[in-house]
Design brief:
heterotrimer, A mainly alpha (286), B alpha/beta (505), C mainly alpha (332), A: 286 residues, mainly alpha, MetI-like fold, 14 helices, C: 332 residues
Chain lengths: 286, 505, 332
């Protein structure tokens, strides 16, 4: 029993320690967003009212003077991430289902079969984005897609689809096939079977794919920086831009960062169980 | 169960989104245009997009004063800001892809070669320039930095030159440290005139426990921006100017005969050695500081000496950000104790003051493919109008520094802004002397200057990090500069450089 | 990586069947082809030319949008005519800055993956236990992953600051306690800065490793453990002989995904060090970005991108080969 006690203690020690590692940066952001500039530049101050006098000025500035700018970026992020998520989930679920349930054999194309196709698709996720910097600019300016929501959604869909498809494929493979078969016997078309039977059963997988897509798109920086100028520009560009010559305004950045991060963190936290369940079901058998 | 779990956060997200969206709605829609107002308000319904760097500095005045223009003209102004390190890329890419994304650009004058030469900017009508009280603008800022060839492409807004800041309360002949300093170095402790005096002071104070605003703490000798991909190369060039600028010869970065880079001459190597010394006499993290950081830390009492643009003046008098109000001294950049004559190939033993008009200032241009050119020009002129610019220069945090005679002469302007008389006189004298100096060095202003400077930036940063020796670093720069010049066309680059420095054979 | 799928609906070949299966897969495939093939071919072809800034303007105009006037700088010898050249590839061999960037990138990949895997595995083990507060812990451990990388980088910059951060305070306290000076110049020194960047990336992505490994652990059937325990195996033996080998496939996938992601690192570096001090932290992606957009040297940027692509493919292949061999040995 002694041993058990020590094991428990160790376990909790690790949990507590790592929780601090995870949470402290958020705490620091939170307190910094209430500090006056001098409270920041004169060395670390930890607890409001104890070693510094909090001020709500930065939050007021963010939501009043900067409200328009913030709202524009926020709205664009929301549109781009939502659009790319919807597109990725649809394309990913369909493609994943195809690869999970049918046999493909592209005789005219390297003789590829399902696994080759799947591998090719996932490899798209890992192409260096630098490869696309200039050609995308060129392509987009031909198509008049620069600085549009649709352009950003297209780019994000491109790197979300592989991941979505990969996870969904494994998820579908873990579902028993009998249900669909009985539906087919009852006269449903394969499409109906997919929409009415398979998709509802796949909710955890779909949710986890949606969360991942949303988070990736919400947080994406490089494409957003390149492909947008004004109309469609997103939050990460706004945050990255705070590196200005007037002194890094930690207090303001902290407030801004918390605002930008809050929605995704909240979604992630509330749907956490689906992330794990969606992944456990299939993807991870390796 | 599932449904509730899923919809709750979605609903939350949508609510937050809608709320923020709602806040923005008034700004998104063009202001309502009354039937009556149409004639009185020439730009009703037109949207002008302004691009500049992030933050209150430079962009702040647009935020503050755009509503007045909107009320006056019926147009609307939207401000787009990027980090300084990305601003050039964003603007040039927008130009190149032909997207008429930005109408008004507030940008550093030394990008003129890349923006004005290819015709991306709209020429400014003469009558508009006449309205800006042109005689009041210091000729340097009026003529040199806003034009390309004979055409004016931008409106002057800001004036910028590097200057010296120091802790007046510590560095003066009556300071408690004066005796010890005199004993150690054999001359009185006072405002440094040359780099060797500068480093004596830095060395003397570095690490010393000094009282600042009631707290006794170790202070650093210098605070200089040394962060890569920021402003460090300007600070470095400020070091190099005194050693490398030959009095009476305008050519400094290149020879005016054939564009041979001078950047690896003994003068520049000496400057880089100095700059490396600054690293050791500065705060521990100085290598990662840009002016953003030094402008926080110097006024917070972190160092004795500082090199920066005019901005530090008003900041040092801002009690919210500064613990050294009234304790800052201002001066022209220190000179070289000797200078290198590249033609004869030897050192000339003579003190050589050569202030560096680093950067040259932010200027306002209008995009040539703007859809609302008239409105854009009007707004640019609105922002550059004399009354506004004068006021902005004395306001802390605007980033706007004096560019007009009236700003330098009207001391009440500065007293009202919180300066004490002595400080204001010092500050203005330092600026006047810097920009009127016959031996001043102008920033590099030719096509590709961003690339030339990026190479310099990278190599000096490597030398600062002890990756390579100073000579080797600057040799690399020279080689790369040659390559860039060849790539862009040597003849044309030479022509542009001669033009830029005013060289005549 | 994944074994061929279990079963298919029907034999292929019937016309209706063929249509339906195309409807499922083709949208995704066509979409990816459309968006990736043009950029890849275009990059490849310009990497053999000398395509500079200014040429893009021409290309855009040809493409239809000729709204602006002719650039006055057209007299410069850029973008006129197309000459094939290997110069870009030759230049790569002698470009020191590129080599440093490649080396830095490799450091990030190897350091980051190792750290994230080890810590991620440990945390997955912890979360796999049954304890009070486990659900809360799981939620907390996941939080960093949701943060925008640029925001995480700013957090890092604040927390690694040598004057204003709590850890600097801690260092000072420690120094005065033990009497000798500890002062880590986090972003002021190349090696420390590299470490700081790896730490920031890891803070953010350890949850990803944990998540995948935890899911893997949960899919190991309980009876295997039971049997081992009945045979009298210690917890450590169980970990070494059962958990670890059974998790190898998913570990490989997780490591591969993270490795390939770190190859693309740019945002954290832009915000924290800008590539400095010196060139100690510049990554390949960042260098390519600079080359293309600051210097306007598009063809060279394309050439480097291709080199990076080759590097990535090599890394992935090598990793999978070694990984499989290792997996076979450790199971045997």
């Amino acid at each position: 029993m002694r041993r058990k006690f020590w094991q428990r203690t160790l376990l909790y020690a690790v949990v507590v320690l790592w929780s601090i590692v995870c949470l402290f940066p958020f705490y620091w952001l939170f307190t910094t967003s209430f500090k006056t500039p001098l409270a920041v530049s004169r060395g670390p101050r930890y607890v409001p009212y104890v070693d510094f006098q909090p001020t709500g000025d930065h939050w007021r500035y963010l939501f009043n003077e900067q409200g328009r700018t913030l709202a524009r970026h926020f709205r664009n992020s929301l549109i781009a991430a939502t659009g790319a998520t919807v597109a990725a989930v649809i394309l990913g679920a369909m493609g994943g289902y195809g690869l999970a349930r049918y046999r493909y054999h592209w005789r005219r194309f390297f003789n590829w079969r399902n696994d080759n196709i799947a591998f090719w698709i996932i490899s798209q996720r890992f192409l260096p984005p630098a490869l696309f910097v200039v050609p995308f600019l060129l392509l987009y300016s031909w198509l008049n897609l620069i600085d549009t929501h649709i352009g950003l959604i297209m780019a994000y869909t491109m790197f979300n689809v592989p991941f979505a498809l990969w996870i969904m494929r494994d998820f579908f493979m873990s579902l028993p096939i009998e249900l669909e078969e009985s539906a087919l016997v009852d006269g449903a078309t394969p499409w109906q079977a997919f929409v009415r039977i398979v998709l509802p059963l796949s909710a955890p997988g779909l949710v986890s794919v949606a969360i991942f897509s949303f988070v990736f798109s919400w947080n994406e920086f490089l494409y957003a920086l390149m492909l947008t100028n004004y109309e469609a520009i997103t939050l990460p560009v706004l945050i990255a831009g705070q590196n200005n010559t007037r002194g890094i305004q930690w207090w303001y950045i902290s407030a801004l960062t918390l605002t930008a991060v809050a929605p995704v963190v909240l979604i992630g936290l509330m749907l956490e169980r689906y992330i794990t369940r969606g992944l456990t079901a299939g993807a991870i058998k390796g | 169960m599932f449904r509730r779990q899923f919809w709750l956060p979605m609903l939350l997200l949508l609510t937050i989104g809608a709320l923020i969206w709602g806040c923005a709605a008034p700004g998104v829609q063009p202001p309502a245009v009354g039937e009556v107002g149409v004639e009185a308000k020439p730009f009703a319904g037109q949207k002008v997009v302004v691009v500049t760097q992030t933050g209150r500095s430079i962009g702040g005045p647009v935020e503050d004063h755009a509503p007045e223009w909107e009320a006056l003209t019926g147009g609307s102004v939207e401000l787009q800001q990027f980090a300084f390190g990305e601003l050039f890329e964003k603007i040039i890419t927008a130009f190149e892809t032909g997207a008429a994304a930005y109408d008004v650009l507030i940008f550093p004058a030394n990008w003129a070669g890349d923006f004005m030469a290819p015709g991306y900017l709209e020429p400014i009508p003469q009558e508009m320039l006449d309205r800006l009280e042109p005689d009041d603008i210091i000729p340097l800022y009026r003529e040199r930095i806003t034009a390309w060839g004979d055409t004016v492409y931008a409106l002057p807004y800001d004036g910028d030159a590097h200057m010296l800041y120091y802790r007046k309360d510590l560095v003066n002949p009556e300071s408690p440290y004066a005796a010890e300093f005199q004993e150690r170095y054999g001359y009185p402790l006072d405002k440094p005139r040359t780099w060797s005096e500068y480093y004596n002071i830095a060395e003397f104070f570095h690490g010393r426990e000094v009282e600042t605003a009631g707290e006794v703490a170790p202070i650093a000798g210098v605070a200089e921006a040394q962060r890569r991909n920021a402003q460090s190369y300007w600070v470095f060039i400020s070091h190099a100017a005194g050693y490398g600028k030959v009095p009476g010869d305008p050519c400094f970065f290149f020879t005016c005969d054939d564009m041979t880079p001078l950047v690896n001459s003994p003068a520049w190597v000496q400057a880089l050695n100095d700059y490396i010394r600054s690293r050791d006499l500065g705060p521990a993290e100085q290598l990662q500081w840009d002016v953003a950081d030094t402008r926080v830390h110097f006024p917070a009492g972190a160092a004795v000496l500082n090199i920066d643009w005019g901005d530090v003046g008003p900041i040092s008098y801002n009690p919210d950000a500064s613990v050294i109000v009234g304790k800052t001294g201002f001066g022209v950049l220190p000179g070289g104790d000797r200078y290198w004559d590249y033609r004869s190939g030897e050192w000339v033993e003579e003190v050589n003051i050569a202030p560096f008009i680093a950067f040259g200032g932010w200027i306002i241009g209008v995009s040539a493919n703007s859809q609302v050119k008239e409105a854009a020009l009007d707004f640019a002129a609105f922002m550059a109008r004399p009354e506004l610019v004068k006021q902005l220069a004395v306001t802390p945090d605007t980033g706007i520094n004096p560019s007009r005679y009236s700003q330098l002469e009207d001391i009440d302007l500065w007293l009202n802004a919180g300066f004490d008389r002595e400080g204001a006189e010092d500050y203005l004298a330092a600026i006047r002397e810097t920009i009127a100096h016959p031996n001043a060095v102008l920033d590099l202003r030719i096509r590709g200057s961003a690339e030339y400077m990026n190479v310099l930036d990278t190599e000096i940063s490597r030398a600062l990090a002890n990756e390579i020796a100073p000579q080797e670093a600057l040799d690399n720069v020279a080689a790369a500069w040659q390559e860039i010049t060849d790539r862009l066309g040597r003849e044309e680059q030479l022509r542009q450089y001669r033009n830029a420095v005013g060289y005549t054979e | 990586m994944t074994q061929p799928h279990a079963s298919a609906h029907k034999e292929e070949g019937r016309p209706h069947e063929r249509t339906i299966k195309r409807i499922f897969l083709m949208p995704a495939v066509i979409y990816l082809l459309l968006l990736s093939v043009f950029p890849m071919l275009w990059s490849l072809s310009i990497s053999f030319t000398e395509y500079q800034r200014g040429a893009m303007r021409t290309a855009v105009d040809v493409g239809g949008d000729a709204s602006a006037g002719t650039p006055a700088g057209a007299e410069t010898p850029t973008g006129q005519g197309i000459r094939l050249t290997l110069r870009n590839y030759e230049r790569m061999a002698s470009d020191q800055r590129l080599h440093t960037a490649a080396l830095n990138t490799l450091t990030y990949v190897i350091g980051g993956v190792l750290l994230q895997y080890v810590v991620g595995f440990l945390l997955a083990l912890v979360l796999h236990q049954d304890f009070w507060g486990r659900n809360i812990a799981r939620v907390i451990f996941l939080m960093p992953m949701m943060v925008t990388p640029v925001a995480a980088a700013y957090m890092g910059r604040m927390l690694f600051d040598s004057r204003l951060s709590p850890q600097a305070h801690l260092q000072r306290l420690l120094s005065s306690l033990i009497g000798w000076e500890i002062s880590i110049p986090w972003f002021g020194d190349g090696r420390w800065a590299t470490l700081a960047i790896i730490l920031i990336d890891s803070w953010q992505w350890i949850p990803f490793m944990t998540l995948l490994l935890l899911a893997g652990m949960q899919s190991i059937p309980e009876d295997i453990y039971e049997a081992a325990r009945v045979d009298g195996a210690s917890s450590f033996q169980i970990l070494r002989k059962i958990t670890f080998p059974l998790l190898l496939p998913i570990s490989l996938t997780a490591i591969l995904i993270r490795g390939l992601e770190i190859f693309k690192i740019i945002d954290i570096i832009v915000v924290t060090t800008g590539g400095g001090p010196g060139s100690a932290t510049e990554s390949l992606t960042m260098y390519i970005f600079r080359t293309a957009l600051t210097f306007g040297n598009f063809s060279y940027a394309a050439a480097i991108s291709y080199a990076l692509l080759v590097l990535v493919v090599l890394f992935a292949t090598l990793f999978l080969m070694l990984g499989r061999r290792f997996a076979r040995q450790s199971i045997a």
